[in-house]
Amino acid sequence: MGCNKVVIKLGGSLITDKSNPHTVNWESLNDVIDQIARFHNKYDSKIVLVHGGGSFGHYEVERIKKNKSIIDKVATSEIQESMLTLALAVIKLLVNSGIPASLHPAHTICNTNNAKNCNYMPIIRDLNNGLIPVTYGDAIFDNEGKIISGDDLSVEISNIINSDCLFFATDVEGILDEKGNLIKEVNKNYKITIINRAQFDVTGGIISKINKAFNSKSSNIRILSGKKLFNALIGEDVGTRIIN
Ligand SMILES: Nc1ncnc2c1ncn2[C@@H]1O[C@H](COP(=O)(O)OP(=O)(O)OP(=O)(O)O)[C@@H](O)[C@H]1O
Ligand SMILES: [Mg+2]
């Protein structure tokens, strides 16, 4: 069965080039937005989009932390600016595809970097009105600059709107074993092998993504390749299913 209500996290690994600072992966972003548009035009489902930091947010935080012991006000603003730049790229392509996207930067709806401490009413309002709300991992100034993770926002929103589906779209097929083969299902006992530490990720990467995903009450939770998002949306068994 396809998704009636879905939260889609567009991973920074998918929509940016994580090895190059401030670089959008336009080909991949275009492709994934085409799939979302195809699904939106064909089915009457509710969609919330969340995106990650990739070579924008994660890179900025790493750059700043090399020079400063904390993320101060100026640094917070720099991270926010870089994330807004990426968000505008996402919004631009969504709007060009005829998708009624509405942007909700996390620093405007969240009080701290705990995703439980956000006001999701504007997102729910837009969702109920037939728009496609978009938010993203961001920097929030709360005594000092703190990073709120797009993965946390996705899980929290999935629980608040009672989504049946929660999909984390990435640049890999799903959770891979040490040989690079796809694991079809993981439960809480699964011990993941990290196969690639080279790319930066200041919010915990793939291990924390899985641990966070276990906290969603959605019945269909997957980590999957952005190339197969449409297949997952229409109910096909792709990527790694998270069983909680
Ligand atoms: N065992 C594994 N299975 C799958 N991916 C793995 C594994 N070990 C490491 N990875 C890496 O985890 C990455 C996905 O997590 P990562 O947090 O970097 O991406 P993301 O969440 O899409 O990006 P962002 O945090 O910017 O939104 C993959 O690109 C892959 O290189
Ligand atoms: Mg990540």
TrEMBL record:
GO terms for biological process: terpenoid biosynthetic process. SUPFAM superfamilies: Carbamate kinase-like. It is an enzyme of class 2 (transferase). Residues 4-222 form the Aspartate/glutamate/uridylate kinase domain. Substrate binds at residues 53, 58, 150. Keywords: ATP-binding, Isoprene biosynthesis, Kinase, Nucleotide-binding, Transferase. Belongs to the isopentenyl phosphate kinase family. This is Isopentenyl phosphate kinase.
